[in-house]
Amino acid sequence: VDAHVVAVLRSLASRLSAGGVLVVKENKPCAAGGGGGGAAPGLAFRVDTPSGPHGRYDVTRPDEHHEWLFACAGLEVEHAESGCVGGEVTAWVLVRRAGGG
User: Fold this and answer.
1) Which residues lie closer than 8 Å to 95 by C-beta, 6 or more apart?
2) How far apart are CA 9 and CA 43, in angstroms?
3) From residue 67, how far is each of 41, 44, 50 by CA, in Å?
4) pTM score, whole prediction
5) Residues of 30-60 as b/e, b for ≥16 C-beta within 10 angstroms?
6) At 95, which helix (H) or strand (E)?
7) Strand partners of residue 68
8) How many Å apart are CA 70 and CA 76, to the nearest integer?
9) Which H, E and C letters describe 24-77, residue by residue?
10) How far is 77 from 49, CA to CA, in rounded Å?
11) pLDDT tens, position by position, 39-81
């Protein structure tokens, strides 16, 4: 799954114009109520499995893991906000890493 995320981020980054940014938002449904399977809120992965005919897998990752994925894709965090909407949302503004890597 991480390889797919990195591939998509690389593809998007390659299409950024000079000075362009990529905004990523992560919902953390377990942030307010714990629910990380015993781990501290925000430190655990969470996978919601599909239900119904149009179900999909939703993967919630810790912020640190997102930042690692961004770096693997050649992006760097220009700005981040965490704790929005009662602690359930983190948002990042990403730019291509200097040197194009």
Assistant:
1) 16, 20, 21, 22, 75, 76, 78
2) 22
3) 17, 15, 26
4) 0.75
5) bbeeeebeeeebbebebeeeeeeeeeeeeeb
6) strand 89-96
7) none
8) 6
9) EEEECCCCCCCCECCECCCCCCEEECCCCCCCCCEEECCHHHHHHHHHHCCEEE
10) 30
11) 455 567 677 777 777 777 777 888 899 999 999 999 999 999 9
